[in-house]
Please model this.
Amino acid sequence: MIRSDAARNRAKVLEAAEAVLDEQGLSARMDEIARRAGVGVGTLYRHFATKEALYQAIVAARIDQLLEEADRLRAGADPAAAFFTFFTRIVDGAARQRTLTDALRGAGIDVKAHQTEQQAAMRRAIDDLLRAAQAAGAVREDVALPEILALLRGAGLAAETGTYPVGIVLDGLRRPA
Model:
């Protein structure tokens, strides 16, 4: 079990690392991340022995945040809004996520191998939101999880260019009136 102060430090490091990476890209220095987190470099390295380990933790934390958001959306009253909001949220974060996963892949780290449980949980969350939206009559019945995953991948790639037709994709998923 991790001590509460160590957990707080880890959370501060992850938050600072995301901010620094957003500003400086993959060339961000570990000492700058530690400074922004308000911890010593030694503390940063105790939690993350390498920059790649830090990147991997950021990717995992982002997926955990998405899974928490899926839970909140599922608990809401509007299954259609929940599905379309979550779809859009995944696409919006795709470009940021790809930068980190590409960096990890370049370092020889198979990100997917380290996230099998998270990937399965994400598939379940998307499928649950999809089925609820279909049951509410908001999403076409002839679409299933494999098609949604393909659309998410394609829209995510398009998002990297800075423009993507998410409205058109979502309109195509809506059940005809």
